UniProtKB/TrEMBL annotation:
<dbReference type="GO" id="GO:0005694">
    <property type="term" value="C:chromosome"/>
</dbReference>
<keyword id="KW-0413">Isomerase</keyword>
<dbReference type="GO" id="GO:0005737">
    <property type="term" value="C:cytoplasm"/>
</dbReference>
<keyword id="KW-0479">Metal-binding</keyword>
<dbReference type="InterPro" id="IPR036388">
    <property type="entry name" value="WH-like_DNA-bd_sf"/>
</dbReference>
<dbReference type="GO" id="GO:0043138">
    <property type="term" value="F:3'-5' DNA helicase activity"/>
</dbReference>
<dbReference type="InterPro" id="IPR001650">
    <property type="entry name" value="Helicase_C-like"/>
</dbReference>
<feature type="coiled-coil region">
    <location>
        <begin position="5"/>
        <end position="32"/>
    </location>
</feature>
<keyword id="KW-0378">Hydrolase</keyword>
<dbReference type="GO" id="GO:0009378">
    <property type="term" value="F:four-way junction helicase activity"/>
</dbReference>
<keyword id="KW-0539">Nucleus</keyword>
<dbReference type="Pfam" id="PF00270">
    <property type="entry name" value="DEAD"/>
</dbReference>
<keyword id="KW-0238">DNA-binding</keyword>
<protein>
    <recommendedName>
        <fullName>ATP-dependent DNA helicase</fullName>
        <ecNumber>5.6.2.4</ecNumber>
    </recommendedName>
</protein>
<dbReference type="GO" id="GO:0046872">
    <property type="term" value="F:metal ion binding"/>
</dbReference>
<dbReference type="GO" id="GO:0016887">
    <property type="term" value="F:ATP hydrolysis activity"/>
</dbReference>
<keyword id="KW-0547">Nucleotide-binding</keyword>
């Protein structure tokens, strides 16, 4: 009997194992089927993108002449940008929903503003930020287009004016009561999600046949897979249920296929290739008038300020620009510093009252203030056509965000500069701030790779990141099928990497990686952890006694302290490269008041087990880690910052490590 029980148990174990294998195989096949289905759908989208309506000759539509007159009269537009006219024609045909994917500065707004002016009724525009709404309304009113808004900043009088102006019945329309008091009504998504009274007013306008179109600006905010998800955007699913006959137009600048699918599902837009499916219009990501460059950021805040001041005075002494900063404190300090150095500036961040935001925004638009210093709260679609430069005081949290933010420049089609001041330690200020976000590390590290690249064209880096094309070398591991068109193999010829010259060399940093991994291992054995800044100090030979690592100074299998040939900037780049490539890793400690990032051995660090200084020197090492170095930065010739040969200062242990307690 015991033998039989053992046999049964063995057979059951085998069956369970087989079931587990089958479950895994089923999951794999389902994922592959979904992927192939997505690719087939995307191919269908790409084949039909920007082809309907097919009529493109000047007088094919009854509204063509009047539209061109309106465009000239209100916006002084004599010629439409690519895709604007077919999108507008498709909108006025009112047969299908429309999804517009155009790069920043591509003219998305006109695609719904001009139809709104032509049609009866009004267009409801949902936009994520008050700053963006006020900017749009300002420009429309300046163009003599009736437009208004309802946001959290609206007064009771404003709310009453708008609600009174909305038609309440077909009789109101017949009597032309309140007709055309506004053609475009801008609201934040919170207004739809949380104001029953406003939604009721929309219902009345819909029943009266006056809700002509619903526009969802920055539509990627609907999707949790997007780079800027906003929960209230997901509530917009109610719009299709309440107003099934009103066409929807969704707009965004960059949109992976997974995000587009999600957005269309949330908004109730028909997926292709269904009959009367959503029309999709796209344009290439690349904007040839934007010149991208990355500049070494000095260590000290005062030096950073002076370098930015000098850059602005040299390149754009009288032109409008934006400086993006990491924190509210940084924005205020930078604005004050620029102003003290003769560059009129104002700051813009989330702590300001709405009227303060509008005031500084208006001063910047009319040229009273040359530079606005802002956090990303300044908006996704700010439209100041003559913005000649965008400076990032520190890196963005993702390459998607950086593309959006830098895209504020050059919207008039003329050349503009997009400059990133990069310092590796900014990575860890940011990582601790976004640690709870989905895919935060992957997104941030892709931004770091962009900043640390000295050789690849910036245009190619953007398109490589966003593209799913397997023919592209080293695609971003989380890249998705992109709806925008790309031309990966064609360099721009204008960015810093295209014009840098031959002052870049690739160097082997395997020994440096081995040393840093060993340091982290030894600290872990002692149940100690080290921050990015303190790891650099230890690597340079400071404070070894304080953390009981003095013995590593005499370890002939590694090199501690590090070679003096490197500048501090180079050392920081090496550590960042190893973190991004997972030889090292971030380990987050959640304290009572802040999150701390510690550097520990990463999963790829095990590849260095058994590697020694001797094996690296004699060429028998099985691992080779390389990094590009630039001898001279064109924008900032720097002296090599040699590591001090002075005796190391005694550093209390608590400044270097934090115990697990």
């Amino acid at each position: 009997m015991e033998d039989r029980l053992k046999q049964i148990d063995s057979e059951l174990d085998t069956i369970e194992e087989e079931i587990s294998i089958l479950h895994a195989k089923r999951a794999s096949l389902l994922a592959e089927r979904e992927s192939l289905y997505d690719k087939a759908l995307l191919r269908s989208v790409q084949e039909n993108t920007a082809t309907a309506p097919t009529k493109q000759t000047p007088n094919d539509f009854p509204w063509t002449n009047e539209l061109r007159q309106l465009a000239l009269q209100h916006w002084n537009i004599q010629r439409f940008r690519p895709l604007q006219e077919p999108i507008i024609n498709a909108a006025l045909q009112r047969q299908r929903d429309i999804f517009v994917v155009l790069p920043t500065g591509g003219g998305k707004s006109l695609c719904y503003q001009l139809p709104a002016l032509y049609e009866s009724g009004f267009t409801l525009v949902v936009s994520p930020l008050v700053s963006l709404i006020s900017d749009q309304v300002y420009h429309l009113q300046k163009a003599r287009v009736p437009a208004t808004s309802l946001t959290a900043a609206s007064t009771k009088e404003d709310i009453k004016y708008v609600q009174d102006a909305m038609p309440m019945s077909a009789q109101d329309v017949k009597l032309k009561m309140n007709q055309d008091k506004f053609k475009l009504l801008y609201v934040t998504p919170e207004k739809i999600a949380k104001s029953k009274r406003f939604v009721n007013k929309l219902n009345q306008a819909y029943d009266a046949g006056q809700l002509s179109r619903i526009v969802i600006d920055e539509a990627h905010c609907c999707s949790q897979q997007g780079h800027d998800f906003r929960p209230d955007y997901k509530q917009l699913t109610v719009l299709r249920n309440l107003f099934p006959k009103t066409p929807i137009m969704a707009l965004t600048a960059t949109c992976p296929w997974s995000v587009m699918k999600d957005v269309m599902t949330i908004l109730g837009m028909k997926h292709p290739p269904k009959p009367n499916a959503t029309l999709i219009y796209t344009a290439p990501l690349y904007r040839p008038n934007l010149i991208y460059k990355v500049i070494e950021k000095p260590e000290k805040d005062a030096d950073v300020l002076q370098h930015i001041v000098q850059w602005i005075k040299t390149h754009h002494p009288k032109s409008s620009g934006i400086v993006y900063c990491f924190s509210r404190k940084d924005t205020e300090a930078m604005a004050e510093g620029l102003t003290m150095n003769g560059i009129s500036s104002g700051y813009y961040h989330a702590d300001l009252e709405d009227d303060e935001k509008e005031d500084i925004h208006a001063l910047w638009r009319n040229g009273t203030v040359q530079v606005i210093v802002a956090t990303i709260a300044f908006g996704m679609g700010i439209d100041h056509p003559k913005t000649r430069f965008i400076i990032h005081h520190s890196i963005s949290k993702s390459l998607e965000n950086y593309y959006q933010e830098s895209g504020r420049a050059g919207r008039d089609g003329n050349d503009a500069d997009c400059v990133l001041f990069y310092r590796a330690h900014d990575t860890y200020r940011l990582s601790t701030n976004i640690v709870s976000e989905v895919n935060a590390a992957e997104n941030l590290y892709a931004m770091v790779k962009y900043a640390q690249d000295f050789t690849t064209c910036r245009k190619i880096l953007f398109e490589r990141y966003f593209s799913f094309d397997p023919s592209i070398s080293a695609p971003h591991q989380h890249a998705d099928m992109l709806v925008n068109e790309t031309s990966i193999d064609v360099p721009c010829g204008r960015c810093d990497n295209c014009t840098r010259g031959d002052n870049v060399s690739s160097q082997d940093i395997t020994l440096e990686a081995l040393t840093l991994v060993r340091v982290c291992q030894e600290l872990a054995k002692q149940q100690q952890r080290v921050t990015f800044g303190k790891l650099l100090q230890i690597w340079q030979g400071y404070g070894l006694k304080a953390v009981n690592l003095e013995k590593l100074r005499h370890d002939e299998t590694i090199q501690l302290p590090v070679s003096k040939k490197y500048s501090t900037y180079d050392l920081e780049r090496i550590v960042n490269h190893l973190v991004v490539e997972r030889y090292l890793s971030e380990d987050f400690y959640f304290g009572a008041y802040k999150v701390i990032s510690y550097i520990v051995k990463g999963y790829r660090g095990s590849q260095l087990d058994g590697v020694t200084l001797q094996s690296i020197k004699n060429g028998s090492c099985r691992v080779s880690i390389k990094l590009d170095f630039e001898e001279l930065n064109e924008e900032q010739p720097r002296k090599k910052q040699r590591i001090s040969s002075k005796p190391a200062k005694k550093i209390p242990p608590e400044l270097i490590v934090l115990d697990d307690d």
